[in-house]
Automatic annotation (TrEMBL):
Domain of life, per lineage: Bacteria
Native organism: Streptomyces curacoi
Protein name: DUF397 domain-containing protein
Region of interest (Disordered), residue spans: 1-22
Length: 84
């Protein structure tokens, strides 16, 4: 596993009105501004388990989420996965 810098600033991906401990996803951006700069991702319930990617891949993922490319992974309210 890659070394995780100790001085990261973690940003919690939670609704503004969220209360309680989550679990929530947290993201921290490592040093650098280019596409190869590291991005760290963890869940609040397991903060020692950190996944690392880079900014280029993170930005592609965010664009995919915004475009609805992952909506089929979300339950539709009935307990079933949403149709593709």
């Amino acid at each position: 596993m890659a070394d995780i810098p100790p001085n990261l600033t973690w940003e919690r991906a939670a609704p503004p009105d969220a209360t309680g401990p989550g679990p929530w996803i947290e993201i921290a951006f490592g040093e650098g501004e280019d596409g190869d700069a590291p991005v760290y991702i963890r869940e609040t319930s397991a903060p020692d388990n950190v996944v690392t990617t880079n900014r280029r891949k993170w930005e592609a993922f965010v664009l995919g989420v915004q475009a609805g490319e992952f909506d089929h992974f979300v339950e539709d309210g009935s307990g079933d996965r949403a149709a593709m």
